[in-house]
Structure formats: C-alpha cells, structure tokens
Amino acid sequence: MKSKTTKKLKLGIFLFLLFTLPIGAIAQVTVYICGSATATLQPDFKTYTLVNGDKVVWNEKAPDGNTVATTYTFGTDPSVNFTTANNLNDGAYTYTVHVTPADETKCPGDVSTEYVVYKLPASVALASPVASFCSDAGTASSSVITATPSSSVADITPTYTWSATLNGSPVASIATLGSSSANVFTVKPDVTAGAYIFRVTASYDTGAVPVKAAGPCVIESTIPITVTSKPGKPTVTVL
User: Fold this and answer.
1) Are strands 30-34 and 115-119 parallel, antiparallel or unpaired?
2) Thinking of the domain 12-119, which architecture would CATH place it in?
3) pLDDT tens digit string along 140-171?
4) What is the pLDDT of residue 14?
5) The CATH number of domain 124-228, selected from 1.10.1200.10, 2.60.40.10, 3.40.50.12780, 3.30.950.10
6) Are 56 and 86 in contact (CB under 8 A)?
7) Confidence band, pLDDT 50/70/90 cuts, at residue 8
8) Edge to edge, what strands does the sheet with 12-16 contain?
9) 2, 81, 87, 137 - which has most CB atoms within 10 Å?
C-alpha cells in the first residue's frame, strides 16, 4: 500500500487587479469589478512548490449556484492563474483552488478559503407612470421618476446624480425642476413647458474594497418627459 505524506498544503489566493496588491490588502475576500473588467487570481501554495504534472483546480460558483471546475497542469499550461470572464452577470462569484500533486504518494492539497469577486450592476433603468403632463401649479399632477439598477448589491447603496435637458439645452440646476430622494426624482407640477430628457447616473462607493474597472465605474440612463402648457384663462368680449 502506498504511503501518504501527512503534510497539508496551505493554500491562499492573491488577487491581482490592474495593480499588485500587498499581502495585507487581501484580508478582505471581496473585490468588485464593473463593466468588461476582469480579475486575475494567482494561487500561492506556501511551503509546497509546484512540479511538472501537478493539477491546479479552480472552482467558480456563479450567483445562480452553478459551479464550474477549471484545471490547469503545471508545466503544460502557460499559467495556473485564473482570470474571470469579461462578461460576467451581476452578482457574487465565489472561487476556491486546490492542487493535486502529480506524485500519487502525496496528499491532495486542502481547498483554499473562498474568495469573492462581485460584478456590480451593469445597467440602471428609469421609469415613470406619467410620461406627459400639463404644467399647472394648482395641481399635484407631475412625473415621479424611479431609477432601478439591474441588480442590488448587499451593503452598498448607489449614489444617484440627476440632470436634465429642456428642448435640447442643459438645465443649469436640477433643483428648479423638482426634488430627489435616493433613486426617486419628483418633477414639480409647474415646470416650464417643453420636451425634457431626464438623466440619472449611479455610482458605487465600495470603501476600502478595491474595484477593477475597464472604464468609469458608473451606470446611467435617460427618460423623456413632455410637459404641455395650460391654456390661459379666457376672457369674453361682447360683440
């Protein structure tokens, strides 16, 4: 019967983004990505040195629970690092890695700690039940615009920035058109008549957790709102 070593392989993962993270920076397992950005995961097997033929096995668990294993052979494949796809769906992807030595007398390595790469929402949608109304200070008629990201992110609330154009020209102060509260903008009932395009930009503050971005890490959307003029109060002339 073949003997097996009792030494356990200590596994860890270094996550590299556009820059190299120091060892202390990976204590937090979550890294955010947005757009078409990718993250590359590099395993560190500590006291064990890979030899030709060793199998490095990565497991990726998607937000829907589906798990896919990817195996690299040291000495055959160009690298044993794992790079995420550039078109991930919104949500948390969990990664682990372990090694199976080519030498069958050696124990398979322990599975690493789970590391999470979180894909931030890819889009935000704007909706309003009222797309057109008559400007009238004496009524409550107006549009209430709601912004909804393509997914929610636990523990992170987006910051929404609102702007608008009127008949193609930028509105200097959005406050003249109404008020906003988080992801909702309420248009005043007596704004100037015309064709408006309201725009929202949503951004995420991930604090100390790094973000990998292929470009500006913001999402935005627009919605048209038409405001018509109220007919003037008539006068009567006796003919």
Assistant:
1) parallel
2) Sandwich (2.60)
3) 768 999 999 998 887 788 899 999 999 999 99
4) 35
5) 2.60.40.10
6) no
7) very low
8) 12-16, 40-44, 82-83
9) 81
